[in-house]
Amino acid sequence: MRLPTPHSKRLTSAVAVTCAGLLAAAVTLAATALPAAAAGTPACTSSGLVVWWDTSGSGTAGSTYYGLQLTNVSGHTCSLSGYPGVSGVDLSGHQLGSAAIRNPVNKTTTITLSSGTTANAQNTTAVALVKITDVANYPAATCKPVTAAGLRVYAPGQKASTLIPFPFRACSKSGPTYLQVEAVERGIAPSTSE
Question: Parallel, antiparallel, or unpaired for β 110-113 and 185-187?
């Protein structure tokens, strides 16, 4: 029978520490590799949403607010959180001027949408308010005003867009921020003028 030497004890300790480290790494990897659906409601995707525009805006001095509404038609419950991407476009679908800037007036929250509705059981809607500033507020040389054919909209966190026909006056030059968008929230889109 051989007695362990100090060298073999160090080797055994090193192997044990290495195995423990590998086991911890494997557990961490397994925990982070779980699909997102297991952690909660999956995010709504562009292919499962109908994005539509409430054309009855609510006016203020020099601008009008409209409700950008999102309907889940995916066949399963999904969630929305954050800001949609919004920009004015011409008849060819090319962007006019600068894209909408984010207005952080509301706290970003996660909204869960049942399939086939813009609302949960309480009949509230998923809405992102979009402010269109009257481009006459900007110098013509800075803005170069034109009539937009509509809006290009990206649902929060998505790379595929939707085109919404809606003629309005827009800046064709980058710089003036004639569009602002708020985070999606639960609420009713504005329907009366002030």
Answer: unpaired
